[in-house]
# Entry
Amino acid sequence: MFLYKLKKWLIGTPLPNWEHKHQRLSNKVGLAVFSSDAMSSVAYSTEEIALILVTAGTAALYYTLPITLIILGLLWVLIFSYRQTIEAYPKGAGSYTVAMENLGVTPGLAAASSLLLDYILTVSVSVAAGIAALTSAFPALYPYRVILGVTVVGFITLMNLKGVKESGTFFSVPTYIFIGSFIAMIGIGFYRFFTGTLHPTVIQAQVQGIADVSLFLLLRAFSSGCTALTGVEAISNGVLAFR
# Structure
């Protein structure tokens, strides 16, 4: 009885089936919710590339842009593919459904396994990157980084259990703040560039590499940067969540 009351207090009472259609999201809220995964990975994908390349020295960071352009090309292929998937499966489908119905059981299970790993890593890496940014801004919180990470995961889980409509409204706000901050950052950068007030930071110390720039290193940097590809499938899977 206590657990039932606690569950009811935390996430509310279960909705009847006829109520589900009223829980669907508008395009403004839905796109913000389902694209938040893909957008959040932008915040740390370039950093992941740089962390690998810097092991070969500061000069190796030159390859950051070429690797990013290759990842953008792959992202365009994924977007085009899932656009076709939405047209072919208007009720929603992802890699598992498409592979299972068109290629067979084994490819379908392979896609499902990849998605399972992707979802686990997305949660862990995204939260870890967010907490790392938070503790970087507020060093006093660094000793509590694990507790903060677990708390954030628990809070996100709780909000999602409350229902699509409630969680969608809540999670859409940070997404638009994130987009607004990026636009403001780019705008301020252009303004300072054209007004001559943008001065590059001169770094005197050069990082001595502990590895050579090899094909393996570049491939590893590429694979780490592919975290930017996460979340593309979410909109294809969540078609029915839109009005």
Remarks:
- The chain has a mean pLDDT of 79.
- The longest helix spans residues 105-137.
- The chain has one domain: 20-198+215-241.
- The CA atoms of residues 34 and 235 lie 6 Å apart.
